Amino acid sequence: MAWQVSLPELEDRLQCPICLEVFKEPLMLQCGHSYCKGCLVSLSYHLDAELRCPVCWQVVDGSSSPPNVSLARVIEALRLPGDPEPKVCVHHRNPLSLFCEKDQELICGLCGLLGSHQHHPVTPVSTVCSRMKEELAALIAELKQEQKKVDELIAKLVNNRTRIVNESDVFSWVIRHEFQELRHPVDEEKARCLEGIGDHTRGLVASLDTQLEQAQGTRERLAQAECVLEQFGNEDHHEFIRIDKD
């Protein structure tokens, strides 16, 4: 026998109209619609008036609803081993299968029908989870794009740094080479200037040495003459006059 629906579509058709989860201990009402046993018991407990089927609104007797054995067998056959038990509402003990878009919190089917979230926009948890995963995937993709841009920027900065360092090395070599070429004639001119200054200085020093030697000789002769004159000055009057006349 060929199946007309896929497994996910089949699971959607096996959802309780109240909690929007796969039936758990399904009970069948007189109208033919089925509900989880816990959902039906909670609904009957919180209603002050007669019980009506939430789907067709037919008045039914919830206390005489038999188990839907065939539906339970199908669900048991589809259930994977080790499936975790869903978290339940603290008020109604039903699975937290809905998400209140207004209050941004998880609720059960009865919270949406009878509780404080009545008439609020609600979405199945599976749908919200898929939506959030899509948003997360979009955020991750955006982060990857930003990371790619940063990686490209880093690569560009590294390339620029390498290029600048290489260009600096080339420019430094060129400048050193050019200044070395310019320094040859400067060094030659410097040597000529220093040699000229040296020759001129040596000539001046030699001339000054000669003049100094002559001046020192003159000073010695003057000192000798001074000494002789002082000796003359020490003679007595008669001898001094005689020597002076000579």
Automatic annotation (TrEMBL):
Q: Which SMART domains does the UniProt entry name for this protein?
A: BBOX, RING
GO terms, biological process: innate immune response
Ranges where the B box-type domain occurs: 84-125
| Highest taxon listed in the record's lineage | Eukaryota
**What GO annotations for molecular function exist for this entry?**
ubiquitin protein ligase activity; zinc ion binding
Coiled-coil residues are 129-163
Give the record's GO CC terms: cytoplasm
**Locate the RING-type domain: which residues?**
16-56
InterPro entries for the chain: TRIM/RBCC, Znf-RING_euk, Znf_B-box, Znf_RING, Znf_RING/FYVE/PHD, Znf_RING_CS
**What keywords tag this UniProt record?**
Coiled coil, Metal-binding, Zinc, Zinc-finger
Q: Which family does it belong to?
A: Belongs to the TRIM/RBCC family.
What's the protein here called? TRIM73
Tell me which species this is from: Pan troglodytes
